[in-house]
Amino acid sequence: MNAVISFMRRREVRRSATIALVWALMFSGSSAIAQARSLTMALASEPSSLDPLFSRTQNNMQTAENMFERLIEQDENLRIRSGLAVSWRAVDPLTWEFHLRPNVRFSDGSPMTADDVAYSLRRARSVPNSPAPFSGAVANIQRIEIVDPLTLRILTKTPSPAFVEQIGLVYIVSRHATAGHASEDYRLPAVAVGTGPYRLARWIPGDRLELVRNDYYWGERPVFDTCTIRFMSNDAARLSALLSGSVSLIDNVPTVTIDRLRRERNVTLFSGPSARLIYLALDSSRDSSPFVTAANGASVARNPLRDVRVRQAISKMIDRDAITQHLLNGAGLPAAQIVPPGMGGHDPQLRPDRYDPAGARRLLAEAGYPEGFGLTIHSSNDRFASDGDLGQALGQMLARGGITVNDVVTRPYNVYAGAAARRSYSAFIFSFGNTTSDSAIGLTNVLASYSREAGTGAFNRTRYSNPTLDRLLREAAATFDPERREQLLQSAAQAGFGDYGIVPLYFPVDYWAARDGVIFHPNKAERTSLLFIETRHD
């Protein structure tokens, strides 16, 4: 335990030494709001595509929602409200009717109609090479009927009380502008045509995204006329840009800088609890896994991660309190399930495993691995605060628990996510950002058995399968009784997390930093988009 904490503190010292160079910068230079309605901000992670239906990952969605909209919208607490649909109703248990907002135009001036909505929902079923598809959101659609230009009816395969929240996740694109175009074509302003408050001006991958106000936007005038989003995965670089005044807002504020930033008179910190689960995924479905070896590095006859006792042992090796208090400087809540307290489906009986390396060694011995085995841990290094450091910390903890950690490998998220979707790893750190008010979406996408036809397991990158969990989720999805649905979701959580389908780590507390009168509204979806930004200059 002390050795783990010492490791974390050494990491903090090294990071602090790097970041300390930033504090020498003076608050000088040109302001990022050179004009009252221009904004420049720096984000840690850039999108893998500007196609809003390519990936449901947070880095893609926070970019998409500047330019594209959905049938429903959500506030900062994930509560739904009308979006492109002004009303909806269940005609019968299998039929939903949606009435669209009148006089909505795309950014090229063409009208948005029910035909565009139907086209978008159908396209979401299968977007090639998607690392995190929207297919699960539309899997229950049997048929779409266009009643008139502003009305459509959707027939579902099974009764679905949560149907509106499910398809409400899908961004609506212009059929005439996008039909026949591949995802890579959305880098072109003539293809990336949406109804959102901003439109694409230019995207330079690896550098910046430039947006301008959509003059045809149906809602209130957007806060900014122009916005430049710079992509800076390096923490020190983002801080330097903020302190020099070249940007007015940054996300993923390193926790080691929070106390110092609070004392800076020209900087304002914004923070809020997240509904995102950070977890360790373990390849439990394959007999042979690419980064699992014997303790001496030799090949193994059978993948030890298939044994639930091994997965439980790994969970007991992890000191979640040390991670949240020392690595994250208190900016995290130890987790035991897919959603935090206060959200639907949270089971208070599920509690984080106690740090117990001795008990972990006993479980390894019971499973037939008294000498442990070899494992490589993979992680992103720019997806969320301290993700690369988290990989190193877990490596230390697993080594103390009896596992030979052959390596800890971190990569930029754009590369990392695609490889994870292709099942390239054995033990890897990932996250799931809950986007609805209960656990159904998370359990269905992360832990349910993978089925392209059923639209389940879209983010199940280990192909974990649990028939009991699948049955409970099917029952919950068809249950209109709120109390019964809550019970079923809690039972599904017990089935999946009792079997260690994934190893939950923590729910982060997120921080943003701003200057120049910029105000950011934290949201449980963690998205850093223009929808959550305003300025005192208005």
The N- and C-terminal alpha carbons lie at a distance of: 51 Å
Computed over alpha carbons, the radius of gyration is 23 Å
| Tally of DSSP helical segments | 16
Share of residues in strands: 15-25%
Backbone shape:
globular
Q: Kindly report the average pLDDT value.
A: 91
Computed structural class? alpha+beta
Residue stretches low in confidence (pLDDT < 50, at least 5 long) are: 2-14, 16-36
Query: What's the number of extended β-strand segments?
Result: 23
**Largest sheet geometry:** 13 strands, mixed
Q: What percent of the residues sit in helical stretches (DSSP H or I)? A: 25-40%
Describe the structure using short key phrases:
alpha+beta, globular, 538 residues, 4-stranded antiparallel beta sheet
Give a written overview of the molecule.
The protein has 538 residues and is an alpha+beta fold. 28% of the residues lie in helices and 23% in strands. It has helices at 2-20, 58-67, 114-123, 135-138, 163-167, 175-178, 235-244, 258-262, 308-316, 320-327, 357-366, 387-400, 413-421, 440-447, 467-477, 482-498, and strands at residues 38-43, 69-70, 72-74, 80-82, 85-92, 95-100, 141-148, 151-156, 171-172, 198-204, 208-213, 226-231, 249-250, 268-273, 276-282, 292-293, 332-334, 374-380, 404-411, 427-433, 503-514, 518-520, 533-535. Strands 1, 10, 11, 12, 13, 14, 15, 16, 17, 18, 19, 20 and 21 form a 13-stranded mixed beta sheet that branches. Strands 5-6-8-7 form a four-stranded antiparallel beta sheet, covered by helices on one side. Helix 1 (2-20) packs antiparallel against helix 12 and helix 9 packs antiparallel against helix 11 (357-366).
